[in-house]
Amino acid sequence: MNLSNAKSGNHPPVGWRIKWRSLIAVLCVWALAVPSLQARNRQGDKFYKLGQKAEARNDFDTALTDYDSAVDADPNEPQYQIADQRMRVKAAQAHLEAGREFRREQKLDQALLEFQKAFLDNPSAPVAVEEIQQTTEMLKERAKLPAGTPVLTPAEKARQQMEQRINSLQGPPQLRPMTALITHLSINNQPSRVLYESVGKLAGINVLFDPQGIDTGTTRNFNLDLNNVTLEDALNYVAIETNTFWKPVSHNAIFVTQNTEPKRTEYQDEVVKVFYIQNASTPQEMSDLFNGIRQGLKLNQGLMMVASQSAIIVRGTPDAVALAEKVIHDLDRPKAEVLLDVIVMEVNKTFTTNIGASLLGQGGFSAPVNFTPRPGITTSTSSSGSSSSGSGSTGSTGSGGTTGTGTGGSTTPTNAVTLNNLRRLSSADYSTILPNTLVQALMSDTRNHVMQRPQLRATDGGKASLKIGQKIPYVSGSLNSAVATPGAIPYATTQFQQVDVGTNIDLQPHVNGTDEISMHVKVEISNVLNTETIAGIQEPIIGQQVDEADIRMKDGEVSLLGGLNDKELSTVLSGFPGFANIPLLGYIFGNKNRTNTDNQILLALIPHIIRAPDYSHVADEGVFAGTERNTRVEYKPQGAAVSTTPPVPEANPNVPVPPPTPLTPLPATSQPGTKPPGGTAPPVPVKP
């Protein structure tokens, strides 16, 4: 019985019942799991928002903890992972900066703790490992040193050693004699060696002579008479008289040799100095300054420009370098600057009136007449092919006559009426259409007021540009390709350029003195008036007002660079000839259009010197530079000029002057700085 009921279709088969039960079980399990997943996502969003708030207040450690919790709640959410990785980098960087600050303050324990936190936040950063190693080595080194001794990193040690080596380099030796002033010295008929030795004994310095001799030719004797001169002046007097050359080799010894080019090349000391240029802002200015030093000082060698560092390296004698420093100091000055006020005032007025009545149309009298004959009047239509006649109307009527059709060929429409029917025609057979009537009275009043007051600032000799407006493209040319590529047709290429439309100002000032300015000024005011179609392309028609001039003005002076007054009055009369010219009837039979245009443009320039050139540092008289072959400078005793020579100590008359220390002469084959047999080599200046 049950089988029959199952087969009868009242209940589903057993297999389908099992499938439905499995599907229902799966849905129940998914329904139970959905709330837990939603709760987990809501928990991740909660930690993510807490991390954002902590990041906003720069609490990177707390933010990193919250982002880590969000990632633990939902590891598959990319937003949580990106925020966590970003915060690891920021937190590690913050700990690194804090550790370096503690290390500069010699708080090494706290610095090591910060570096370890940085490593825990971002283990993939190798810099944290390096900082931990350096800080650990510094802690070990501090344990070996006395308390309070600062500990440096390897990089700081290397930098300190390099600075010590650089600072240990000395300049040329300076004489420090026992007696700086020679009150009286008189020598007659003595060789040059005796003159130098006598001056050296009075000043308390040692004199070394070139083993090859100091006489350029035959031995001669000289006379010397000095009163109240310094040691350097006395030595210079002897050098000029005997044609010799001397140089200091220590604070109490000099070396004397012949005054010849080979000897100067061999024994003349040189120094090196780097000068940083501060006010040359362009490569051209830097090149001009470099060429001025090279040509002005005649330094063909020992001069080099480093444009990337805005620096000039000078190598030469101490006097040549001192002279180069003077020239660089005078040339490297802040350039003058100019501020230009430009006032552009523009007034455009357009007044248009259009009054009249157009009864007959704009094209003149045009009233077409139509002919429609009444029944009973015979008409005929002639054509080139055939003709026909009959009673009634043939064809259709139109303006100016009747259009008929023939059996063939072209037809010339004409209405032909027989003579016996002329007496039957009347005015009722004709009709006409009058044109429309237009009565108008229009007025248009347009007024535009434009005022611009831009400012331009430029350095002396520089260029400044101001452009207020827009760029308008236009066709500048086209290129047609006569040869087509395989599978293609010839093509045409159109070239476009752009023009600046609006207010354009170009300025190049030059400051003359402290209160006058020379300027090259170009002011251009342009606008698009209309467009014109050329070769199928609309081209703009641009109106321009350009004023370009070279002027010279005083500071604050107002100059009207250009004023343009354009007044136009145009009257257009149209209508029926004769009637339109009648004073009163002209408004009925015609139309009068009157346009009054008034354009006014005023340009005003007001320059201001905001930084004047400074010439106060330039001396009224030239600086002593020596001779063509020998560059030499002189320092004022206690003047405004800063001398690189240390002050010479005043001699104490109560202290006895010890005799100079005897020195062994140099052999003929030795050079300064070498140790002669049985003696001590004199000190040689360290060349930078």
Attribute tags:
single chain; 688 residues; alpha+beta; five-stranded antiparallel β-sheet; 24 strands
Can you describe what's shown?
The structure is a single chain. The protein has 688 residues and is of the alpha+beta class. Helices cover 29% and strands 33% of the residues. The chain is built from 13 helices and 24 strands. The protein has helices spanning 2-7, 14-56, 60-73, 78-104, 108-121, 126-144, 154-168, 192-203, 231-242, 261-267, 283-296, 318-331, 586-589; strands at residues 181-190, 206-209, 222-230, 244-250, 253-258, 271-276, 303-306, 311-316, 337-358, 369-371, 379-382, 387-390, 396-398, 401-403, 416-417, 430-432, 438-452, 455-459, 464-480, 492-512, 516-534, 537-554, 559-575, 590-611. The strands form eight sheets. Strands 9, 17, 18, 23 and 24 form a five-stranded antiparallel sheet that branches. A four-stranded antiparallel sheet has the order 19-20-21-22, with no helix packed on it. A three-stranded mixed sheet has the order 2-5-4. A hairpin with a 3-residue loop joins strand 20 and strand 21 (516-534). The longest helix has 43 residues, at 14-56. The protein is flat, with a radius of gyration of 53 Å. Residues 1-9, 32-40, 360-365, 382-413, 639-658 and 660-688 have low confidence and may be disordered.
